[in-house]
Amino acid sequence: MVGSTVALFSHGPQPLEHTLDYSGDRGLLGPDSVSWRVIGDAAAFVGGIRALLVQTAHPEVVAGVEQHSRYRADPLGRLSRTSVYVTETTYGAMPEVEAAVAAVRRAHVPVHGRSERKKAYSAGTPALAAWVHNVLTDSFLSAYQAFGPCPLTVAEADRFVAEQTRIGALLNASPLPSTADELARWIVEHPALESTRDQSDAVEFLRSPPLPLSVRLGYRLLVQAATTTIPPAIRTIIGLTPARGAAQIGNTAVRSLRWALGSSPSWHLALVRTGTPVPTGLFRQPLPTARDAE
Predict the structure, then answer these.
(1) What does the pLDDT read at residue 75?
(2) Quick one: average pLDDT of 20-34?
(3) 162 burial via Cβ count (<10 Å: 0-12, 13-18, 19+)
(4) Which residues contact 88 (CB under 8 A, 6 or more apart)?
(5) What pLDDT score does 290 carry?
(6) DSSP code per residue over the chain
(7) Residues contacting residue 16 through CB under 8 Å, at least 6 positions apart
(8) What span, in angstroms and rounded, lies between the C-alpha atoms of 286 and 269?
(9) Terminus of the chain with fewer CB atoms < 10 Å: N or C?
């Protein structure tokens, strides 16, 4: 299960490949942030998949994915690209953060058209950027609160959301709710959400993409875990119902991943770059650079 889950996020470029070139750079959020702790936990695997599912509830966003993405030909590519973007904006030195944001801006330029309900869309507009960014933030927070080692306090959850608004602001996303409760309400009460054929097709694909057998088990467990954290109103729109026992199975799966993998090696690498003491027992994987292994 561990091997299959890790393989889900290994279909893209290696993030932070040159981060040690920026010794001392604390990045956008820094080692004292709540974000480093949340994104570095195994629950983030669930959060990434949850975000892709929830994002389909917006007809113009899902139209952009359906009309401009290669996800059907490359079912793990979008998940891996999302993972790399989140890793670099969270843990990267400032030049890496800026490069990741610039890459997203470039990718958004050609993404425009009309949705199934005949509304014009452009991926770079503040409103659509806000939906994608805010759902990503809410998904990582929801997954951590459900499957993390210890739920965040209200103050910590608000800090996480406020930290993530700094990333959203770099993409000109607006609005950017600044507390966890405001964010959750904004998503559930969003006036643009609607069931569409594009949405149904995308969710069906996300539920059961044509994955190699070696990674299918881990993916299905994470999808079920993610579904349990989606608010009922959103689940109704996207047509998902968690299987019986999915939350318990999700907890077991994430605990197993945490035990086997430890925390994110990108978090470890960022601590090394910033000269921050590395806590013992937190990391199990080798640093993702050959330089540190020497």
Answers:
(1) 65
(2) 98
(3) middle
(4) 15, 16, 96, 97, 99, 100
(5) 42
(6) -HHHHHHHT-SSPPTTTTGGGGTT--TTT-TTSHHHHHHTSTTHHHHHHHHHHHHTTSHHHHHHHHHH--TTTSTTHHHHHHHHHHHHHHHS-HHHHHHHHHHHHHHHTT-EEE-TTS-EEETTSHHHHHHHHHHHHHHHHHHHHHHSSSPPPHHHHHHHHHHHHHHHHHTT------SHHHHHHHHHT-TT----HHHHHHHHHHHS----HHHHHHHHHHHHHHHHTS-HHHHHHHT--PPTTHHHHHHHHHHHHHHHHBS-HHHHHHHHHHTPPPPTTSB-SPPSSHHHH-
(7) 87, 88, 91, 92, 96, 266, 269, 270, 288, 289
(8) 10
(9) C
In Å, how far from its chain's centre is CA 10?
14
The closest of 15, 83, 49, 78 to 268, measured between CA atoms, is 15
Structure-token pair, residue 241? 């119902």
What does the longest C-alpha to C-alpha distance in the chain come to?
Answer: 57
User: Does residue 293 carry a pLDDT above 70?
Assistant: no
pLDDT at position 239 is: 96
pLDDT of residue 286 exceeding 50, the answer is: yes
Q: Looking at this protein, which amino acid is placed at residue 62?
A: V
In this prediction, residue 291 carries a pLDDT of 43
